[in-house]
Specification:
Blueprint lengths: L8 H48 L2 H8 L3 H16 L3 E5 L23 H4 L4 E7 L2 E11 L5 E10 H10 L1 H30 L4 H17 L3 E6 L4 E4 L1 H7 L6 H9 L3 E8 L2 E12 L2 E11 L1 H39 L3 H25 L3 H16 L3 E4 L12 H19 L7 E9 L2 E8 L24 H12 L2 E6 L5 E8 L3
Parallel strand pairs: 10-11
Antiparallel strand pairs: 1-4, 2-3, 3-4, 5-6, 5-9, 7-8, 8-9, 11-12, 12-14, 13-14
Helix pairs in contact: 1-5, 1-6, 2-3, 10-11, 10-12, 11-12, 12-13, 13-14
């Protein structure tokens, strides 16, 4: 079923910005026009008032009004003044409103239309009214004789149409900035909308709301730890499972290094605290630039422990199978010697083989009270024999019942022995690995030496270090985890024969 897509946030914002800017520009333009009109009216009032006062104070006008034919003298004069000052009419009238002059000569002698009472009282009348030439802004001032008596009136006016024509002449001064403002605002809104559309991928509000709800639900429900970092490596998001795996404090150094590397990682085991996590990292790129990384984490702590135990059991099984095969060969040899009548030699051979096998078992079981650790060393001895390596348990080894978890002891001893066996596998004989496990002075000392090439790398106990070409390098990192968890220490030295000598000290707390 196709979904009906609503307007995107970018589109809505663009339309809203255009409407708002248009409204603001319209309001501003209207205000500017009104102000300009008011200024034009005030300028017209000042102009007509000044002209009217100049005409009224002219002695020729006073003498003409007192004469027998005022119109004959005043009409040419007022028309010349009107043309010079570009006003629409100049009317000189008697105090009873009779016009002496007018722009239209046929109206001379008729009554003036407008307010004159204020001028008759010696003041000035300013008004906007409709007269014979239409609506106009006009003023009326008195004409006084030598004694100050009002003997006539002068009215000067400019029609509203003339004022509007002047305003229209100024239209480009207002229209051009208005158009530029609209264009600039529209261009800015379009650029902002384009950027927002690119960042929101053209999604609408409802779609983004649903996406956020799905995003939040997935983050809380997914059973993998999720860590999102920006281009600077700063963590911007950690889901619930990620907080459970990594804690609420600072990130483990291994996780921080992985995020800082900004490289793609697939199923990479990472020790973090007392956990073994499997990490997958993807680098986020947009328009060819790295914008961040997404790291997912799965907890494989129990699985790794079980896998290690399974490997030990499998190795022990293989060793037992080989031993069984060797024992069968020796038994056939003994039986054949008996059948040949060489009984005494058969007894000596069987007794020697039994003593060799029992000697190591008695030594390990007698020295170590932890049955799992004893079984581990016996199994490793069989594995070493299969590889042509001699595993020697130091006679000074002594370990009774200890509060240290048995699994931690197996992790330390097993991984150190495995690492030593790997180190001497390709060397020249004699190939030997020595193991010392002893408890003294409130701590358990595990010391494993070999006749291999030695261990000079300071990164041996870090994640990913390995002497194998395709190794994961988790063994010594797991040892480091156990040591850190118990507050112990690790020492790496060179054995007498040139091989590695690793000492691990684990404090024993009552």
């Amino acid at each position: 079923m196709p979904l009906t897509r609503s307007w995107s946030i970018a589109g809505r914002l663009f339309v809203l910005q255009v409407l708002v800017v248009t409204a603001l520009v319209a309001i501003g333009t209207t205000g500017a026009v009104l102000l300009a009109r008011d200024d034009a009216e005030q300028a017209a009032i000042g102009q007509v008032e000044g002209i009217a006062q100049a005409v009224a104070n002219n002695p020729m006008v006073v003498d003409a009004v007192r004469g027998t034919d005022p119109s004959k003298v005043l009409q040419p004069y007022t028309e010349s003044v009107r043309d010079a000052t570009r006003t629409d009419f100049i009317v000189v009238m008697a105090t009873d409103r009779t016009r002496f002059t007018h722009t239209r000569p046929d109206l001379i002698g008729q009554r003036f239309i407008g307010t004159i009472q204020g001028a008759l009282d010696g003041g000035t009348v300013i008004e906007t009214s409709v007269g014979t030439l239409g609506e106009s802004v006009r003023t009326v001032v008195p004409v006084r004789d030598g004694d100050g008596v009002v003997i006539a009136l002068v009215s000067v006016g400019i029609t509203t149409e003339a004022i509007n024509q002047k305003l229209l002449a100024r239209t480009p001064a207002v229209a051009v900035p208005t158009a530029l403002a609209l264009l600039l605002a529209a261009a800015g809104s379009w650029l902002l909308s384009r950027r927002l559309r690119r960042q929101t991928h053209g999604l609408g509000p409802a779609e983004m709301t649903r996406m956020y709800e799905y995003h939040d639900a997935v983050l809380h429900s997914v059973r993998e730890g999720l860590v999102v970092a920006d281009r600077a490596g700063t963590v911007t998001l950690v889901n619930d499972e990620g907080r459970r795996l990594l804690g609420d404090g600072e990130l483990p150094p291994e996780i921080s290094d992985l995020l800082a590397a900004k490289t793609a990682v697939e199923d990479e085991p990472v020790p973090a605290g007392d956990r073994i996590l499997v990490a997958n990292q993807r680098v986020i790129r947009s328009e060819g630039q790295t914008v961040g990384t997404v790291l997912t984490l799965r907890d494989h702590t129990e699985l790794r422990a079980l896998t290690g135990e399974l490997d030990s059991v499998r190795g022990l099984t293989e060793a037992l199978r080989s031993q069984a095969h060797e024992a069968a060969n020796r038994l056939h040899t003994v039986l054949t010697m008996v059948e040949l009548g060489r009984t005494e030699e058969a007894v000596r051979l069987a007794t020697a083989e039994l003593e060799v096998a029992q000697q190591l078992t008695d030594q390990v079981v007698g020295a170590l009270s932890e049955p799992a650790l004893a079984a581990l060393l016996l199994g490793k001895s069989a594995q070493a024999a299969e590889r042509g390596v001699q595993l020697v348990v130091d006679d000074a080894s002594r370990l009774g019942r200890t509060p240290l978890p048995g699994r931690d002891l197996l992790t330390v001893v097993g991984n150190l022995v495995d690492n030593a066996l790997e180190a001497v596998a390709g060397t020249e004989p004699p190939r030997e690995v020595t193991v010392l496990v002893v408890e003294s002075d409130g701590e358990v000392l595990v010391r494993v030496g070999d006749t291999g090439p030695g261990l000079a790398s300071p990164e041996a106990f870090q994640r990913g270090w390995s002497t194998k070409a395709a190794g994961r390098g988790l063994g010594l990192a797991l040892v480091r985890q156990v040591v850190d968890r118990h507050g112990g220490g690790i020492e790496v030295a060179t054995a007498a024969g040139g091989g590695a000598l690793i000492s691990v000290r684990l404090p024993v707390r009552p």
